[in-house]
Amino acid sequence: MKKEVIKKSKDLFKSLDILNQRDLIEAINEIRKELHKYSPFKNEPVDCVQWIKSDMVHANDYNPNSVAPPEMKLLERSICEDGYTQPIVAWRNEQDIFEVVDGFHRNRVGKESKEAKKRILGYLPLAIINHERESKSDRIAATIRHNRARGKHQIEKMSDIVLELKRRNWDNEKISRELGMDEDEILRLCQITGLIELFSDQEFSKAWDVEGEVTESDFEELSDDVDDFKEEDKEFRTVNTSDENRIFHTYEKWECYKAGFYNTTMHGKTKSECEEEYKKFLSNPKKFAATLEHVIKEWKHSCEHYLTNSAMNRIAWLGQAAMCYATGIPSTFRGGFSLMSEKQQNEANEVALKYLNKWLKANDREEVTMDEAYANRQSDIY
């Protein structure tokens, strides 16, 4: 019986020779789907690899995995020399577009490498995930599980993903189980959430202002151009979560968060008006000092979380915190610091350093110099 089935199948497959390339690929895909229905491995996506036109395959918007340029080049060479040995994992959305769950870089090579694209005729090999695993939460979890077995992660994007899952009512236990994290790691990622806009600017180590609005695109590690691979390794970021002397609190405990520190607008005031108030407030050392006294005494959780982080610009945080405490103006308008004269800036820095050391001393920690308070380690900020 087995031999007869195989013989009939071979005879049937001979008729495929009369089809043009496009029809042939579509026919093979459909045949594979039918075979998949009878397979003892029909619950395994890899049992039914489909060849899909590359323009129907799109990257997802949450993948935190990154590959350094040399490894990316090696992947391109491997695919060109050895072919695709692993399919891209994807799901099919309502618009009949396939979104990548795993294989973002294999997807890029298939689209961007001329040699690879020619070899696979403008198609990509896809393993389609099970229908019952198509919710965004499940797709995110699948991506992270694939990624955590290899590669680097953008911590900022990982924290966004954890927050997204929490918004979808996933508790820490479920996140831990699905993503392979321990609960301490989840806690630290939650603590990072919401801080990207504050500490992302490259000049933050010596200034309290930022030019332009920070958007999600500022944190993409990988470009869409193969020629840009050599530039991508400059974008890898690390975080300061391993310092045993650091104190962590989740954001809902931060007094600064409750006071509107991370708001992006100020009701009833324009950007220019807010920045002018910033300048006026910080140019008054006496008023600034009096407010800092309140901050270091009343914002217990915020001060513990931020002022124990030796890798960040604690001088800048104190200035922004005092401004928020006194006026309600959020840190996004810190550009007002640049409106001050150099003398005024230096005076404000000295006041902030005085109260930073006052807090450190009161909490049995070593006092720091101005350079140590600045830290100048933006890449290690979290």
UniProtKB/TrEMBL annotation:
Query: Which ranges form a coiled coil?
Result: none
Domain named ParB-like N-terminal is located at 50-148
Matches recorded under Pfam families? ParB_N
Q: Name one GO biological process term.
A: cellular response to oxygen levels
The record's listing under Gene3D superfamilies reads: Conserved hypothetical protein from pyrococcus furiosus pfu- 392566-001, ParB domain (3.90.1530.10)
Stored SMART domains: ParB (SM00470)
Q: Look up the domain of life of the source.
A: Bacteria
Q: What is this protein called?
A: ParB-like N-terminal domain-containing protein
Q: Which organism is it from?
A: candidate division WWE3 bacterium RIFOXYD1_FULL_39_9
